[in-house]
Amino acid sequence: MNRFLTSFASHIRLCGVLCRSCCSLVGVALMFTANIVVPTAALAQASCDGINAEFVAARAMEGTAKVEALRGIHARCTTFVTSYALAVARIQVGDFDAAIATLKETEKNQLDVKNLGAVAAVYGRFAEAYMGRGELIAAHGSMTLAQATYQQIRKSEREQQGEAKTKNPDWFDKARRAVESQLAEPKNLAVVAQLLKKNVGGDVVSKSFGIRPAIDLRIKFEFAKASLTAEGRELVEKLVEVIHADKGEGKILLIGHTDEQGTARVNDELSKERAKTVLKAVLRGLPNAAARIKSCGKGARSPSFARASSEQDHALNRRVELSFDSKACENNPI
After folding, report:
1. Which stretch of 167-171, 207-211, 212-216 has the lowest confidence by average pLDDT?
2. Among 149, 142, 110, 172, CA closest to 18
């Protein structure tokens, strides 16, 4: 994975636009990816000739029959399209070990790192599969990569076209909800602490991409107030322990976010005060870290799930973001 990340990092910095290379599988690649376009490099194997109809028929199947049909096609015609489709089918039947093995093969041998749509899709599927295996930290890491890539696509679209048209696929946001909801569970505080330690100390994502991924902390506050609940205090104590153990000197920002309910004025003030509450609690335990840790609020302007219509999404939007980007408070994130 490190080889891929290092290579992809250079494309993240240099590519700047979504690759538009065509797939010789006559549009099949555009069909199977739901609402994200994943073009691939041209197929070279003679064994791939004439499989379009067979591939479409296999994708219309369900369950293990679908997996077996796609596995047979993949054995004869090993491309990004067939590998990705097989991995997705394996996720759908709950064979997460086989799905991860297929995704690793796809990443290593077929993935064109200049194709940001494909990169985002692959790492989103990794997150799904790792969640299926109950590996929250691995799922969070893959989700971070995927989300950062979707954001890069939208940034490039705005720069090139004046507006961003690419949206997260529904399946991806569903997986993201699953990851974030699990991390919000009090029983997973130990997992959150591991994530904090991994990111505060630096990890493969930040080293390879030059990106410092953020962590959304579901710190509990009293209703419509900036005062912490008992659960909220417990999570802040974990945060203090992790930052104290870290030997780095990088800046840390605590960014308050509200849901999209209520007025902008109230939300802006509440998000700022909640982030300030967490900052004060952290500095009580780490008084020498005042120059390193700052806070700000962004109200409802940067929701994790925009236009939320369910209480689950509203709850996930109410958060304090732990960011390692020293400029994160200057502008709204993508």
Report:
1. 207-211
2. 149
